[in-house]
Amino acid sequence: MVGFRSKSPQRLSPDAERLVADALSLAASGSRLEDVYWERRLSGRLARLLKNGSQSSLDAALDHLFKHNNDASDVLAEQAELLAESAQVEHEGTVYDVLLLAAPILAHTRYSIPSGTLKADDVQTLGAQLQAHVLATGTRFTLAPYLYSIDQLPRTHSDTFALTPRLAAAALAGTTPSLDLRDLPETAPVLADPRYLLAVVIAPAGAPLFRWQEEAREHHAERSACLEQWSTQAKPTVARMMPGCEFELMLPDAFFYSCRESDKKVRPLTVRAAVNYLTGTLDVTADRLAAIVAGFGEQDLDEYRVSFTLRGERDVIYGIVWPIYGEEDNTAASQESGGGVLERICEELRACGIEDIFRHASLFEPEYCDDCGTPLFADRKGEILHPEMPEDTPTQQPLFH
Which domain of life is it from (predicted)? Predict the structure, then answer.
């Protein structure tokens, strides 16, 4: 997913050291005026690195700060995202603000979730609905003619930094963006996954980019109203693009924010998709299934892995991963009181009709299959196993979430 960071080297490079120093200074700033000074200095360094594709220095600085100073790590990540997904450009004597957008589509299916090149008519229709219901009046925009999976999005800040001006140039010229999509990786065939429409919106510097920023004559356009209108109008087109899928449209917004939010919101769909798949493939009702929920992490809790078995049997036949995000309330006290992420997972399982739910209290070390890379899952006794469907099920199986 967006924002993956490689492991930092033992010694920071000079560029990474400067980024760390500036981020620490900005995080410690005591006034808005001082903030502006450090932001300008940090942005200048970041812009040079991103333009040169020097992602490794940024990754090293982010990893170092993540281990030693969370506030400074957040500051550096925020500045890197800002520069990668936005810009100011001058065109025909006017200065414009540019923002890269992602419009997530949360999909689940028993079959496969499409991705790939979009038909010209669909691009035109979705673009018109984006302009009518999400973007501010008078903005320019262009919609990339491609339906992206997570694996096909820009992988780094540098990749995003390179994509934004290319889409901006097409928006200013009023042309379809020319993108080389031939080398995009193949999409993993999972049952629940986001898909993304990518676009760039451009407005004169300081002018509204989104409809909810505008001062309406009668009432302010709320984000919720924009989402409802976008979802209602875009759904027929998306349904044609994604046959055999159930889906939910999210509000188009800034690239990195939208990607993070879709990561969180797709998690319940992985539970529903897994139960639908198992009941349909095995021809059983949901109450014939059992679930084992276990926490995994090297030191702290990073994710829950949910194992599925046939009720009364030990073999793990399927599994899904539910990642934990740092801001989520997942403390021991919260779990004991019935709140937190663990209870949310159990609620989703119960809503799907699974009554037999076992929770492990221990934290397990993450393990993966050496041959296929599949996450390994805990059975009821705490043994870590590779999921294996019964021998008489169809051989064409989706990958695990």
Answer: Bacteria
